[in-house]
Amino acid sequence: MENESCELGTGEPKNHLDMLPIKKGTDHLCESIINQEGFKELYAKIDAFISDEKLKYEYSTLNERGALLQQKQQTGAEITEEEITTFEQLRNDFLGNEVATNFLAAQEEVQQVQDRIHQVIAKTFEVGRVPAQEDFDFCSDGFGDCGCS
User: Fold this and answer.
1) I need a labelling partner for 141 at 20 to 30 A (CA). Which of 41, 82, 114, 147 fits?
2) 75: in domain
3) pLDDT grade, residue 87 (50/70/90)?
4) Please, what is the angle between helix 98-127 and helix 81-95, to 10°?
């Protein structure tokens, strides 16, 4: 056959896994997340930021300036005092906004949850089964359940 990895006539790669049970499990995971007591507060912090166009613009500007300074530093280009002062002022103004700091804290928490979920999924493919605590190289099952004493 020309391409054994494709189903006959579809041109689509053949999946080894049925995606329906994965979708159902993912939906269940999402339900577990949104049904938690703290989710509404976490979501409200993210939504408050997303709804504030001015704050999003400031965040974008801060990130762009930071990336530019980092690029200049990596290439050995001169960074002026004015550039540093401007960046620090942008950062201080941004961090002086409670909506911004709440968003950053919420974003960090979301990232931790995503990282832990990814660790467990990656470990599942690595060990070929649902991983147990001892499968992880650190004192946790990825979700803070530390059985180490």
Assistant:
1) 41
2) yes
3) very high
4) 90
